[in-house]
Structure formats: structure tokens, C-alpha cells
Amino acid sequence: MTTQQPRHSEPSVNNQLGDLLREMLFGCRVRSENTQLVAGRPGLQLDNLVTALGRAPVVVEAEYEVLGTAEGDAAGRLGLPVIGETHPIEAAIALRYPDAVRFADNLRPALADARLAYAVLYQDGGRFPESGWLRGSVSDLADLIRLVSVPQKAVDAAADALQHGIERAANILGEMAQTRPNITAAIARLLGMVDVPQTRRMAGAILANALVFHQRIAGMHDSIRPLRLVCGPDVPNPQSATLDAWKEILDINYWAIFAIAH
How many Å apart are CA 242 and CA 216, to the nearest integer? Predict the structure, then answer.
């Protein structure tokens, strides 16, 4: 019995993956099967390294499913300083190529259509998912790379800013409870709660959540204006403009997020 031999080596697949990612990750630099990338370790070869201005480098270490070294290789890249980059590698992706790629007659379309398996490893020891593997296309992998390339300091700063904004909104509502109690009482009834500080913080969180989703949705629907055009400093009546925009969003859907916020 003759064992079928793979048609493509892992380095050739890694190079092809890099080509596909370059087409999807605009503004990013993708380097495949390169050395001379890690400070102090010039001979270390990375399968694929993705870098971008203001982002943390992300490395993708890949293998065929029958092997089993990608996760260990990915873990070994965490914390490494990349030459010319401000941030070290904070997240690494372990990737498994299916047999459909391994034995494909035509590599590029096979890889583009493949169902890949991957997991994210973090510098703090975390793994996502905690066990098993995510499944998706090269396009899904590109989206994941964008997500995990946000530096942890930026995530922490954004979380602090969000919390500050929620507290500020709650304080405004607290002042309003003294001067216009009917309004805060109506908000509490809408939320099915009593008019207390916790209720006001929840109202602030609902508004913050809606604003975040609004900005995201604006990139998906041409008819929805981004936040800077509805509540930016140059908008004469930002409250009215925001409510009008949320009505347009509700006409599309997204009731779970915008119905109460509106």
C-alpha cells in the first residue's frame, strides 16, 4: 500500500497564507518565513508575522493537523521583541492546516476555501478558546489578527475611559434626579428598576454600548452616519441627530441594543 505524499510543504503554505493575508489586512505588513525579525535572535524564523503602526505584532505559527507543534511554537514567540516595533508580541496564533490543503492540486484556491483550525495564546498565559480550536476561513483569521493586535495598554486605557464615561453619565443623571426627578424616575421604570445610583450607571452603560455599536454599524451600512457626523463637536443638535440615526438603525434591526437606548 502506497502512502500519499503531501503536495505542499508547510513553508510553501505559509508563504501562500501570507499572500492572502496581505490582500485582506490593509495597512499591515506581513512577512512570511523570515528571519532577522526578533531582537537578539537573528536566526529565529517566524511562519508569518503581521505588524502595523500603533499595533502589537502578531505571529501566526502553523502546522498540518497530523503534526502538533504549532501551539508550542506559538507559545515560544510570546513576549519576544520585534525589531523596529514598539510593542513585543503580546498574542500569537497557533494554526492547523487541514488535509484538503496538504494534498491540494492547486494550493491557493484550496487554502482560500479551507476550514482552518486556530487558537490564540496570550502573553499573560491565557488561551482562547480555553480548550479546543476555533474554526474559520482565512478571512476569519484576518479579522482575528486585527482584533488581537490591539495592544493591551490600549485595551486597558479604553476600558478606563469607558468606565469614566459611564460614571460621568451616572453623575449627570444623579444631578438631574434632584432638579428633574420625573425624568430619572421614567428611566428607572423603563429599565424595570428603582431610581438609585446603580440604575443610573446601568443607563450610562446602555448608552455607551449603543454608541460603540453605532460606530461599528456605520462601517457596515452606508446609510448610517458615523458618530462624528451625529454627535461630534461640529453638530448643532447632537441629541436630535443621534436619535434620528438610531431610528434608522432600528429600521434595519438591532433592537436588542438600541430599543431601550433610543
Answer: 15
- Give the range among 112-116, 130-134, 235-239 with minimum mean pLDDT: 235-239
- pTM above threshold 0.90: no
Determine how β-strand 116-122 pairs with β-strand 91-97: antiparallel
Host domain of residue 223: 154-261
**What is the number of alpha carbons within 13 Å of residue 236 lying toward its C-beta?**
0
Q: Does residue 237 form part of some domain?
A: yes
Asked whether 31 and 48 are in contact (CB, 8 A), the reply is: yes
**Predicted confidence (pLDDT) per residue in 181-207, tens digit:** 888 888 888 888 888 888 888 888 888
Beta bridge partners of 116: 136
Query: Do residues 257 and 210 lie in contact, with contact meaning Cβ atoms separated by under 8 Å?
Result: yes
Task: For residues 248 and 125, state if they share a domain.
Answer: no
Query: Each residue of 203-239: pLDDT tens digit?
Result: 888 888 888 888 888 877 888 888 888 888 888 888 8
How far are the Cα atoms of 131, 155, 243 from residue 216, in angstroms, in the given order?
Answer: 29, 17, 17
DSSP at 25: S
Please state, in angstroms and as integers, the Cα–Cα distance from residue 181 to each residue in 186, 191, 254, following that order: 9, 16, 30
Q: Are 17 and 107 in contact (CB under 8 A)?
A: no
